[in-house]
Design goal:
homodimer; alpha/beta; eleven-stranded mixed β-sheet; 13 helices; 11 strands
Chain lengths: ~325, ~325
Amino acid sequence: MKIIIDAMGGDNAPQAPVEAAVKASKELDVYITLVGKTDVIEKELSKYNCDRDRMTIVHADDVISNHEEPAKAVRSKRGASVVVAANMLKNGEGDAMLSMGNRGALLTAGLLIVGRIKGILRPALATLLPSAKGPKMLIDAGANTNCKSDNLVQFAIMGSIYMKNVLAIENPTVGLMSNGEEEGKGDELTKETFPKLKNAPVNFIGNIEGRDVMEGTADVITCDGFVGNVILKTVEGMGHVVSSKVKGMFMRGIISRLAALFVMKGLNEFKQTMDYREYGGAPLLGTKRPVIKGHGSSDAKAVFSAIYQAKKFVETNVTDEIVKNINSMEDKGND
Amino acid sequence: MKIIIDAMGGDNAPQAPVEAAVKASKELDVYITLVGKTDVIEKELSKYNCDRDRMTIVHADDVISNHEEPAKAVRSKRGASVVVAANMLKNGEGDAMLSMGNRGALLTAGLLIVGRIKGILRPALATLLPSAKGPKMLIDAGANTNCKSDNLVQFAIMGSIYMKNVLAIENPTVGLMSNGEEEGKGDELTKETFPKLKNAPVNFIGNIEGRDVMEGTADVITCDGFVGNVILKTVEGMGHVVSSKVKGMFMRGIISRLAALFVMKGLNEFKQTMDYREYGGAPLLGTKRPVIKGHGSSDAKAVFSAIYQAKKFVETNVTDEIVKNINSMEDKGND
């Protein structure tokens, strides 16, 4: 299996992608293609001992930064690392791609270059969020605004397949994000989506509310990408503030620093719960081949998790199963 | 000043409302009217030493529980405590009302009985959320779904007046909740609202994102009530999960319990940050007289905060100022 990595994207590029790629090529039984400026990557690679048989560099002259307008940049910068990587994926020169760079550019490249699965109206970004009951999926986490009910149904189907295959959750539950639990609650979109989810091939448990995100009530949370983005960033922001408050609690003086030693195990568990790095990247579901968005601030550990996730994404045939499911739904629709 | 309290609403009624009312009548220079079943309230009141000159009971035979359909219940249960209280407020038999009961019923009673301020399209529920920079307002936090841009502009105006008057924040900043900071980001609603907020009589700082909620980037966060409800409950849910994790960290054994003593000051500050009780209730802004929703799980301390807030709401003439602002906007619109 070959994973294509945009080595130029993210706050810690190229160090983090390269370090993670070296580790992955040794430990995960994968071949890695690093896409970006050859000299920069070579210099970074020279710091490590690695098996160059499992590691290829493909040169890309350009980079799309976080401040560029995504659609325009993807169209005009043919030599940008994310564009080169997407073209390689499209042409079958790899089994999955991963980028920590400009989110919009990756989504655009996924949509326009890698392409949608036939029948999928809009691919969706799926994020794993921490919860009291382990990682849960939020889909769409920000690829699409102004969604229709049919989009939300497809998000639920794709998310369920991913959670079943990649996270080995049997018959994953699906919750529809709303402003109340009762069937009648919601805005126009969720009210229209509710009956459709009842008839969809998913384990639908009804409306859920914001508090269910952290409580982990549903394995898959389906919503419009505007709402999903707000949820994701609210949780991330709260994680930062809370973590720094907890840290501050122990940093007030010598005695409180000592106290930290006494609760070290609990403190580590707490950190782990709040740590997005454990959960890898956010898969874009609905494209012809696996595309994964790593967090912009990913360190090598987070990139490694995302590579591991990309491997599982490929191995467990998520994309094939989405294709089959959509086809069978379309067949039913034609009856 | 007279505050009308629905003594039958909330998880801890009548104990919490009555205890808080007694304390408020002593400490806050307010007169209190407790609405509900006389015998039940009398029995609760008998536990305290209080000045009955400052405390009236008005009998209400019925209660609207949390499980009832709000609009229907308000229309059919004329003798319900929240309905009786709203009618008293409408008739000028009090200056503000407070209920910890069925949220939808209170909103309906506020809208249908107390009534909208002329020119206000939809009253909005405003919640104070904790942030790294102190309490910030989320409006609408769940009274309205499927909002229009004019609603969001009015929410911003009303919220700004409240924050300026009640929380003494000079020239409060307003952020429009969106899925990106740039002006072009958002869904149809926020894209239409952005230019209108630029021209509104508020200190508009542009789009904000979910992470800005806890970071406290804006004093007033304006959004559709569906989105606001999701944010509010996501934050509440995360608060619960995080607090129990932190608590668990210290409860593992004797040594970790001892450690808690060493960080007591920090731990208390942490608790305070996560504690909605500090912030009183959620004002319904845009009704002819002040209506406040206390949290359903309010204890006496939280009810007391909400009474204090109701007093400030009245004293600082929030309602009058909203009326003036809306009139002057309408005058401008007629130019």
